[in-house]
Amino acid sequence: MGTYRHVLLAMDYSEDCLLVGQRARDIAERNGAKLTLLHVVEEVHISAGYELLPLLPELPDESMMKEARQALERLAEKLGVADAERRAVSAVSTKEGIINTAKEIGADLIVVGSHGRHGLALLLGSTANAVLHAAPCDVLAVRIPPH
Fold this sequence. Notes:
Helices cover 39% and strands 22% of the residues. The chain is of the alpha/beta class and 147 residues long. A five-stranded parallel sheet has the order 3-2-1-4-5, with helices on both faces. Strand 2, helix 2 and strand 3 (85-91) form a beta-alpha-beta unit. Helix 3 runs parallel beside helix 5. The longest helix is centred in the middle third of the chain and has 18 residues, at 62-79.
């Protein structure tokens, strides 16, 4: 493992995000690196006619972004990383949000959680796998044990 200067933790709202966050925090501390916490709110793109708009789920709006920022604050508090940068971004996909943010901040390590699924889930791909193949830097997929 190299020396990292900027660690990007991509988190979701799962109960496992604390486990993944602890790993990212520990790596950042050992390397004297900056830590950025990220949550991506996926955008919904409408390809149907406007007549279907009332039937579609609510588009990402300011309340979803506010919820994401609050979740980042709670995670920072639980991890004891008050000085960590927090970013809530909206993007077409979680992968795109992570990759774009990593490039923007100059991250040299992205930390994501991975359930280590096999079979169909593996074939279809996962966010961790997608990030791994598109990342501009190292990626650490923290294995989340099955419940």
